[in-house]
Fold these 4 entries.
Entry 1:
Amino acid sequence: MGVVLPRTGRLADLGDPMSFVVELLAPTLRHITRGARRHPVRLVCRDSRSDPAAARHAVGELLREEGAQIIVTMAGTRVLPAVADTCEALGVPCVSTTFPWQAYYYGRGATDARPFRWTYHFAWGLDDIAHVFAQMWERLDGAGAPAAPRTVGCLWNDDLQGGFLRDARHGFAPVAAARGHTLVDPGGYREPAVDFRSHIHAFLDAGVEVVTSAATTADLDLFVAQAARQGLRPRLLTCSRWLAYPARGGRGRAPHAEHVATLVYWSPRHPYRSSLDGTSAAALAASYERRTGRQWLQPLGLAHALIEVAAHALGAAADPTDRAAVAYALGRTRLPTVAGWLDWTRGPVPNVATVPLAGGQWQRGRRHEHELRLVMAADCPAVAPDAPLLSAALTPGSGGPPSAS
């Protein structure tokens, strides 16, 4: 198994859970059994260096030098597609995650009639994010109040992320608008941002109640500081991407906006277990915190599931040394994992299995200064909310992870 992960560069924090999982599983995942035959297994990593070109080179190295039969990867708006595209071109099975499936599938050039042959993915969709965020906007007046449409300011960049969110057919915007919300989009900004005053003026003029974004924490910090100076105080800020993770710049430092709401795709409270050894989500998160001294983060469960899926495909393939047979097995995989039930036979498109989302919010914690609380089950009834949704108290922060690419 070849693992392409960012150990250095801008995305290094997001490679940390994958590194942890490889170190955790490598000592015990030594063989794959197929019928009467037992095949030795190695997990071999290469650093993407948070760069698309380096990621493509890493795939080539894993094939030439290690003879990888399958590649797994995660993280990076540009890095993940670079890995997947290279695998598709070179004819090696690949499994990836942590990237909205529409951006993965349509963004890489597949169509409903022309799927990929070698590359597979599991994640949530842009439509799923829109549904979860919209449900939180609608419940700002309390669980017992009628669902209310909102005027929502869109803080989206001018790059791939912003383009995917705005896409009229597959994006976030049409789903949120269809629920009755008014979206105010003043246009994209260039990352890293230097000034959000024009966006803030547009939001003030439109009477924005809620702001939604996929900004980096550094850009969100700038927005929060400038919004406070100009008198923009939205009732809620929903943000995906970096704000789905705990602040890592100072190891445990508070997120940049108190009570920022985000998506939840995995947590220690999810009632799932590993197909490899029965490890629960709670036990995996506890092991990570105990061994690293850092707060658990959502990609941890998906990183573990990547290895589970790869091991399953190798074991289910008619010949695990035949890459075409492994790819065929991937496309027929139905597997319970520590990240939930993954099923590539049901769509929504070929090559993709979906992960349901809940709604979360960063609130004052008991074990950590801020903890991700589940405030809405949304499309994930397997987990019950453990906190109410609170109105935003936007306060400027400092520092934080750099821009994701």
Entry 2:
Amino acid sequence: MSLVTPSEIMQASGLSEKDFLLEIILLFQKKKISIGKASKLVGLPLEVSV
């Protein structure tokens, strides 16, 4: 089993870093992906305040 890192996903997309991030934002805004999935795709941990 292999682990795909966010940078590998971005590179495979063929998009620039800026365009990749914009695509993730659009997918989240359109409710196509969750905030958790979006944070994993961009490689940022999701912090929860309690």
Entry 3:
Amino acid sequence: MEDPKEFAERTFVLPCLVENANIRIDFVFLQCSYEERALRRVKPVRLKDVDVKFASLEDSIIHKIIAGRPHDIEDVEVVLAKNPDFEREYVLHWPREFDRALQGDLTDSFQKLLKEREPYREDQFIFSLSGFLST
């Protein structure tokens, strides 16, 4: 990164690298009530002798939906597949709020991912199979 100060002022994120451990850490400066809420929901994890706070599963999903890059969407798909019991309403609430404020379509994008993850019901499969066999 050529100018970290300019990047931090523009994005409210200061990326740092702990070189001897090759770990990247992003310091995020609060901009809205969502970020404040997300910081209250962090999950502490003990790594050796240090408590490290990680974004909750749901907030990680929200961050990736907002980023919207192809690899972020792929990450969301994997997280949803491995964690079907996440707090769905919490995750849906914040994209709706951002959509209202920014006239976006984050909610639609996330609901599409959810729909793609829904398992087929047996009756859907039988109907589809019977249609296939009769042709």
Entry 4:
Amino acid sequence: MRKYFLLSLFVTILSFAAQAQSPATYPTTWSKGDANKTILRSANGNYKLIYQGDGNLCLYNKANAPIWATMTNGKASSTVIFNDDGSFLIYNGPTQVWSAQCHGKGGKYLVLQDDGNLCVYTQDNKPIWASMTNGK
């Protein structure tokens, strides 16, 4: 019950997203109700990750230009998940439509860095996946 409350509180805080964000720790889920809202923001405020209403998860720079996307626009999707097994996924119901390919690699947190890179890190702060958008 406490985990559910903390997760609900965390998702509520993310939905406001007016200030710099802390890394997302697992399990974190964003649903269609979060569509077109910033779900992660870099600490310096220059980059934001948005789960768009068209099903695409996009990373935008300070100029509000898209610099990375899951390319899931037009595909039905209902949920973005950072799972307790370290996987970072987009689902439509039970069907996976996108994956960062980091399942089983020990991912512990997802962070949007000040350089614009979206990364999954292990407990030992080793990157296991990145959007490769640093400096864009």
